[in-house]
Amino acid sequence: MSTALLVFGIVSIVLTAVVLFRGRSIGPFIVPYFFLGWIGGELALHIVVIQAIAAVALVAAGGLAESAGGAGLVLLVVSWVGLSAAQFRASRAVGVLRRAVGEGFATADEVPGQLGAVRTFVPWVELVNPFRMRRAGVEMVKDIAYGDAGKRNLLDVYRPVERGAALPVLLQIHGGGWTIGDKREQAKPLMNLLAANGWACVAANYRLSPKASFPDHIVDVKRAIAWIREHGPDYGLDPSFIAITGGSAGGHLSSLAALTANDPEFQPGFEDADTSLAACVPFYGIYDFLDRAGAHRGQSMEGFLEKYVMKVSVAEQREVWEKASPLSHVRPDAPPFFVIHGSHDSLAPVENARTFVTALREVAREPVLYAELPGAQHAFEVFHSVRTGHTINAVHRFLENVHATFRIRREDGGEKIAASS
C-alpha cells in the first residue's frame, strides 16, 4: 500500500503540473496533455475531494507503513495546494471578462447602464454537478432539417417555454476538428442560460471531413443562417437579429461566417439569401490556416488540414487556404466580436487569437472584445465550472449589449424614415 500511495502521489503531482503550467511543442503528448489540463483545470476541487477520499482509504489500509507512503502523501498535499491555486486562478476569470465587456462598450452611448455589468454569481448546483445541463423553463425542438445532407443538416432550437415577442437568436456551431462532433455535445451551459433569459439558440450540425471538403462546412453554416431567416418566425425567432458562436472548429467557422456575409462563393444555390450576422463570439478558434504568425510552432496543422479538410496543398492552391482563414477576411464592416481564448490552450495556441484580434481591431468599426482567460485549456466551457459560469455570464451581457444597440439603431432609423416621409 505504501508503493501505491507513492504512485498515487506522483500521478497527482504530474496532473497538477499540467494544470498549472503551459506546455509548448510537446509533440505526441499533446492529446493527453490537453485532456489532463482540461479536466484538472475545470474540476480541480472535485479532483481534490476524490483524491482525499482515496488517500484516506490507502492510509487506513497501511499506506504509511513504509517511507514511500509518507513521500506519496506529501506529494498529494502539494498537489492539492496546486489544484486549489488553479481553482483560484479560474475564479479570477470574472475580472478579465468584466474588463473586456466594459472596455469593449466604453464608448457605446447606445447602451447606458449596461457597461461591464457581468454577473459574478455562479449557481452552486452547477459547480457541484457540472454535467447537469437542463434548466427550468427551457424547451428544445430537436432534429429540424435545414438542408438535404441527412443528419448532418439537422438543427435543434432551444427556447423559453414562456415567450412573447420574437426571440433574438444565437447560432451555435460545434467543434471537433472539422471531422467529428455533434450539435448535442457542446455549448449547453451557454445555450440554456440564454434560453432561460429570453433568447433562442440554434445548434446546427454540418457536413464533416474527410467525406466533406472545404468549403462544404461553411456552406452548411451559411445554409443554417438562411434557414433561420426564412423559417425562424415559425419557431418564435427574430430573423432580423442572428448572432453566431462556436468553439474550436466552430470558432473558425463562426468567425468565417461573420466575416463573409452574403459571399456568393460560400452560398451555392442560395446566393440571394441574407447571411449577415449581428455579432460573433468565437471560442478558442483557429483563425489562420496558413499560420502566418507561427502560432503553432512545432505542431503545425498543415498536414492534417491538407489530408482531411482542404484536400489540396498550400503549394497547389494557396488562395483556397487564404479563403478558409478568417484572418484573410478582416473588414471594416465586421459585426461586433467577442473573442474568448484560454492562455494554456494546447490545441489552438492563444497566439493565433491574439494575431486575429489585433488585425480585426485595426480595421473594424464595431467593438472587438478579447478575453484571454488565465490557465484555461481548450474546450473549457463544455461543462459547468466556475470559469464556465463567469464566461457565459459575460457572453450573455455582451449579446444583450449588442442587441440593445441594435434595437436603438433600428428605432432611430425608423424615426428618421418617418420624419423624412
Structure description:
Strands 1-2-4-3-5-6-7-8 form an 8-stranded mixed sheet, sandwiched between helices. Helix content is 45%, strand content 13%. The radius of gyration is 23 Å and the shape is globular. The protein has 421 residues and is an alpha/beta fold. The chain folds into 2 domains: 2-91; 94-417, Rossmann fold (3-Layer(aba) Sandwich). The model is unreliable at 112-116 and 416-421 (pLDDT under 50).
Shape: globular
Spatial strand sequence of the major β-sheet: 1-2-4-3-5-6-7-8
Spans of at least 5 consecutive residues whose pLDDT stays below 50 are: 112-116, 416-421
Please report the first level of CATH classification, the CATH class of the largest domain: Alpha Beta
Q: Order of SSEs, N→C?
A: HHHHHHEEEHEHEHEHHEHEH
Straight-line distance between termini: 87 Å
Percent helix: 40-55%
Under CATH, the topology of the largest domain can be stated as Rossmann fold
Rg is 23 Å
Query: Count of DSSP helices?
Result: 13
Number-wise, the strands total 8
CATH architecture of the largest domain: 3-Layer(aba) Sandwich
* CATH superfamily membership of the largest domain: Alpha/Beta hydrolase fold, catalytic domain
Number of domains: 2
Proportion of β residues?
A: 5-15%
What attributes does this structure have?
single chain; 421 residues; Rossmann fold; 13 helices
Give the secondary structure arrangement, pairings included.
Elements lengths: L1 H19 L9 H13 L1 H17 L6 H25 L1 H12 L19 H5 L9 E8 L8 E7 L6 E7 L14 H8 L4 E5 L11 H16 L5 E11 L1 H11 L19 E5 L18 H9 L7 H6 L13 E6 L7 H14 L4 E6 L12 H35 L1
Parallel strand pairs: 3-4, 3-5, 5-6, 6-7, 7-8
Antiparallel strand pairs: 1-2, 2-4
Helix pairs in contact: 1-2, 1-3, 1-4, 3-4, 5-13, 7-13, 8-9
